[in-house]
TrEMBL record:
Species, as recorded: Modicella reniformis
Compositionally biased tracts (Basic and acidic residues): 271-283
Any one GO biological process: membrane organization
Name of the featured protein: Uncharacterized protein
Family: Belongs to the PER33/POM33 family.
Region annotation (Disordered) ranges: 262-283
Organism superkingdom: Eukaryota
Amino acid sequence: MPPAPPATLSDRLWVLVKGPQFVWWLGHVTMLVCAALYFLYWITFNYGAGAHWFSRAFLGAIVSYGVVIYKSFPNIQFTPEFFRKILADENVQYFLMAIFWWRSTAMLAPLLPFTVFAFFNSLNYTRTNILPTFFPPPPAGTTDETYNDVSLISRKLHVWTESNHAAAMTFVAYVEVIGVMGSLIIGAITFQSSILSPIVYGNFLRYRYFFSAETRTAFALIRSSLDNFFLPPSGNPSIPPVVVRGYTMARDAVIRFGQAPVHQAAAAPRPESEERSRSHVRG
C-alpha cells in the first residue's frame, strides 16, 4: 500500500485551529498585545485613556484560563468535595483573579504576572505547534535547509525558556507579594481603588503561599527584612516601642491569616501545572 500523501498546509492549519488549545494560545496572545498597548499609555501617564486595554488584556486571560479549567475539569459534579477541589486548583484561582482584575481599576502591577505566564506559554505553543505546522519535517531521505533553520531556532527557544523559567517564577512571586499588594494597599489608602481589593487579593495570596515555593520565599525575605528593621537586636533604636508592638501584632495576624487555608487545602491534589513546572507555566 503506498504511503499517504503529506498533509497540505491547509490540512495542517485546520488541525491546529480546531482544538481548544489554539483558543488558549489566542487568549495569551491577546493578553500580551493588550498589555503592551496599556504599557504605552502607562509610561506616558495617560492611565485613564489606556484603561480599556487593561480590561481587554484580562479578557484574554479569562479565555486562556477558562480553556485550562474546561480541560482539567470536564465532568462537573455538584458536590462539596468537587467544589473544594476546584477552588484549590491554582488555575481556577488565577481565572477568578482575572475576572476580578477585568472589572477593577487599571494598574500596571496586576498585569505583570499574567503577562509573564502568557509570554512563556505562547512561546512554548509557538515552538511546539505553530512552527511545525508551517515547517513540517521533510520526507525521509531528503533535506530542507529552511526546516533545519527553524528546528535550530526551536531548540534555542526551548533552551532559553528552560533556563529562564525559574527566574521568571521568582520575579512573578515578588511582583505578586510586593508590587500588586503594595499597589492595592496604597490605592485603598488614597481611595483610588476599592478598600476590599487588598482583602480579596490577600485571600488569593494565601493560596499562592501554599502552592508556590517562590511565594513562600518572597514572604520569608520580606518578613526577615522587616524584622531586622523593627525588632532588636538589629532594629532601629529610634522606633517607638508602640510601633514595634504594632508591627509584631500585624505580622502575627498576617501569619495566622496565611496559615489558615494551608490546613484546609492540605488534602487537595497537587495542581498539574506544579507537577510539570519546568516545562509548563500555569495557565
